[in-house]
Design a protein that fits this description.
This protein is 50% helix and 10% strand. By secondary structure, it is mainly alpha-helical. It folds into 2 domains: 48 residues, no CATH class; 52 residues, no CATH class.
Length: 117
């Protein structure tokens, strides 16, 4: 379910939500249940010719890229590095950097495990 409106009972659209939802779509971080990724209107939000917004309550899911990015952001160390070192970087740099950082941390853990044996 979308948290699309600013207040319960309000019909005032939360533009911040729309902005972030569109970024999720644009960067292929979410898809429909049939695994398709489409334009905004295919993903549940459609602007009419007068600017009105129609919401189609569509079930969505994280793609593998979405899960990978969420996994990296759930690591406090990685999140802090991204926020401080890459806060103004383009999304691709942040995404790729998050994956490299998580791979680096995993390699360190594997190296430590191999040293124990």
């Amino acid at each position: 379910m979308f948290i699309l409106y600013k207040n319960i009972g309000s019909r005032e659209v939360d533009e911040n939500f729309i902005f972030h939802y569109s970024l999720l779509i644009e960067n292929s971080l979410i898809s429909k249940l049939d695994l398709s990724i489409g334009l905004m209107d295919e993903m549940g939000l459609k602007y009419g010719s007068t600017g009105g917004l129609t919401v189609n309550n569509l079930p969505i899911r994280l793609t593998q890229h979405g899960h990978d990015f969420a996994s990296a952001l759930n690591n406090r160390e990685i999140l802090e590095k991204l926020k401080t070192e890459f806060k103004d970087a383009p999304f691709k740099v942040i995404f790729d950097g998050s994956q490299k950082l998580i791979q680096h941390l995993a390699k360190k853990k594997f190296d430590d495990l191999l040293k124990e044996n």
